[in-house]
Amino acid sequence: MTTSNSRESEYPIAPLFLDRWSPRAFSNETMPETDLLTILEAGHWAPSSFNHQPWRFVYAMRGSEYWDNFLGLLIEFNQSWVKSAAALFFVASRTHSGELGSADQKPIYSHSFDAGAAWASIALQAHLSGYEAHGMTGVDFDKVPEVLGIPNGFRVECAVAIGKIGDKNQLPEGIREREVPSPRKPLSDVAFNGIFVAK
Q1: 133 touches 160 (CB < 8 A)
Q2: Nearest C-alpha neighbor of 163 from the set 18, 29, 2, 19
Q3: Within a 10 A sphere around the Cβ of 70, how many other Cβ atoms?
């Protein structure tokens, strides 16, 4: 087993997987755009079916001309803490291969799965770079394509806030006590030898 960051795995793994978590309290610090691009670079090297690389990232840095529009695409609860993050981006995935709008496009069955692999890589690279990332689906998904110019043929998957960890006392009262690395279900609840077990 591995113990780190007030967490414990059942089997030995690299501490990185326990050290990475998804805080809501960010420090209000800005970050260089190059740091964000380094983090997104890691996501863009994720594995994907047939190397389709269906993920797309649309980002805004806090303080930029785009920040308020991006923040406004989140539900009110998420806006209350994301406002202190250094960057906010949306992940979209290409749902079909081939030229956009053409009749010979073919569905990419794993587009969301592959975008998830990119998100995981981003979250780990953010941690390695001295930041943390928090992915969320508390988003006005109907508005995102129009505001960000995402065309048909892409599925908006989630939003991600990135920044340095801040003081949890800045959070709204209801979520301060939850500002700790979360546990996981036992591995036996999610990994089955030979046949699926509904749990």
Answers
A1: yes
A2: 29
A3: 24
**Six-digit token pair at 162?**
């990135």
Please list the residues that pair with 154 across neighbouring strands. 94
What is the C-alpha separation between 33 and 54, in angstroms, rounded? 23
Quote the pTM value.
0.94
Distances (CA, A) of 30 to 24, 63, 152: 16, 8, 33
Tens digit of pLDDT at every position of the chain (199 positions): 999 999 999 999 999 999 999 999 999 999 999 999 999 999 999 999 999 999 999 999 999 999 999 999 999 999 999 999 999 999 999 999 888 877 888 999 999 999 999 999 999 999 999 999 999 999 999 999 999 999 999 999 999 999 999 999 998 888 898 999 999 999 999 999 999 999 8
